[in-house]
From TrEMBL:
This is Phosphate transport system permease protein. Belongs to the binding-protein-dependent transport system permease family. CysTW subfamily. Coiled coil: none annotated. PANTHER family: PHOSPHATE TRANSPORT SYSTEM PERMEASE PROTEIN PST, PHOSPHATE TRANSPORT SYSTEM PERMEASE PROTEIN PSTC. GO terms for cellular component: plasma membrane. Its main location: membrane. Keywords: Cell membrane, Membrane, Phosphate transport, Transmembrane, Transmembrane helix, Transport. InterPro entries: MetI-like, MetI-like_sf, Phosphate_PstC, Phosphate_Transport_Permease. NCBIfam families: phosphate_pstC. It is found in: Cell membrane. It comes from Microbacterium rhizomatis. It holds the Pfam family BPD_transp_1. GO terms for biological process: phosphate ion transport. The gene is pstC. Residues 88-316 form the ABC transmembrane type-1 domain.
Amino acid sequence: MTDTIAPSPPALKRPSTKRRAGDTAFLGLSTASAVSILVILAGVAIFLIIQGWPAITANWATNPSLSVIQNPAQVPWGSFWEYVGPLLWGSIWSAFIAMLLGAPVAIGIALFISHYAPRRIAGALGYVVDLLAAVPSIVFGLWGIMVIRPLLLPLSHFLNEYFGWLPFFEGPVSSTGSTILAGGVVLAVMILPIVTSITREIFLQTPRLHEEAALALGATRWEMIRLSVLPYARSGMVSATLLGLGRALGETMAIALIISPSLIYSVKVLTDGYNSQTIAANIALNFPISDEMQRSALIGTGLMLFVVSFGVNILARSLVSASGPKKEKRRSKGKSA
């Protein structure tokens, strides 16, 4: 009896390394799109620096065109930094008020959509919240003038009467409602879509096993959210809040329409004569009537806003990326155990 030798299997062919024309085209388009973003960003920065540099380096005390720009007291500005300081403060202060009022509401809406509302209601509510991002800022400004300003007048009198000993609520209370508080409320509504959408997606990414384990151990729904969902989404909530802050910093028309601005440092939120102007609103109001040097000064303030907004967004992205390696380490430790 002879032994038969089984034939050896055919050698596997290596996949062809030849790239298809469609893949090459798609790679080129993707690379060009990514590079174009960097080019546009660098172009905007270079434009702001070139156009704003003459006013930044000029001697404001000896330049009559610059010394009286948007200066009701007619006290000459000594330098560009004296001029841009109150504007930076106004932008940051109004954005901070918006975040203080809007971020908790946005996180609450996101929690309701992701963990409390029925599926049909959650889908409809999420769609309505996302639609807020499509509303033009000029419409929000008109809504603030016609609705928010009169609505906040009783609250302003209440805060001044019972909490007037705090510097934020000192009088005299505005009779028209053109206050930084009204502007902050409108900005808070405007940042709801971005903060809500990001935090909602982060809440939905919480591992289902963590939630079910907490419920199986007898935790209520709120205890499950507090122990499982919120710790998992903490860095995401912070980054979403900072992205909303970047949105509020650059808002223009809503603030320009609502408040009665002044170039001062002030924390009062109930008066109409002590509202710090924002950079974006100041540019929108004064650019059409400015001469060449004043426009250079306004572009210089835009450069400062660009730097602040860019820094806020970088901080938000860094917080998101910093949370990634920790999650990977936890997963690798779990697998090795």
